[in-house]
């Protein structure tokens, strides 16, 4: 029995996708979906650049989950998956200038403008609780 590499990867990453979509975060899988959602987003928008790496699993996704328990939250919640949905991720990263591509990463936009960004190096060296506190502070500052 043979399984294609693409099918294998889809099966492997689905639980990683589910960790965020189960929180009510909408997954954007194509560049067209990003283009249809991000430029028109009013208010505050969280965009999580998901990844298969250990720091996404141990810190980023759990940190986002804890932050979304906060009373104050962004109006829209989106995610793209680096390395899996490449065109969607590249299109989303256009909104994160001047930051270079980084995954995992977490962006907060207000009326389409980047107001807070957590890069991979800020995920790797911190706990999920520290990331949640960073996001919660940003939510309380920009999402009211």
From TrEMBL:
InterPro entries: BrxB/BrxA. It comes from the Bacteria. Pfam families: Disulph_isomer (PF06491). PANTHER family: BACILLIREDOXIN BRXA, UPF0403 PROTEIN YQIW-RELATED. Belongs to the bacilliredoxin family. This is BrxA/BrxB family bacilliredoxin.
């Amino acid at each position: 029995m043979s399984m294609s590499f693409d099918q294998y990867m889809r099966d492997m990453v689905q639980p990683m996708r589910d960790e965020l979509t189960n929180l009510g975060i909408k997954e954007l899988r194509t560049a067209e979906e990003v283009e249809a959602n991000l430029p028109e987003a009013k208010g505050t928008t969280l965009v999580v650049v998901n990844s298969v790496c250990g720091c996404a699993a141990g810190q980023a996704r759990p940190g986002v989950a804890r932050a979304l328990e906060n009373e104050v939250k962004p109006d829209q919640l989106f995610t793209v998956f680096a390395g899996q949905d490449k065109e969607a991720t590249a299109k989303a990263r256009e909104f994160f200038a001047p930051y270079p591509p980084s995954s995992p990463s977490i962006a907060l936009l207000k009326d389409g403008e980047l107001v807070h960004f957590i890069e991979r190096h800020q995920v790797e060296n911190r706990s999920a609780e520290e990331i949640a506190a960073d996001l919660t502070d940003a939510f309380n500052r920009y999402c009211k």
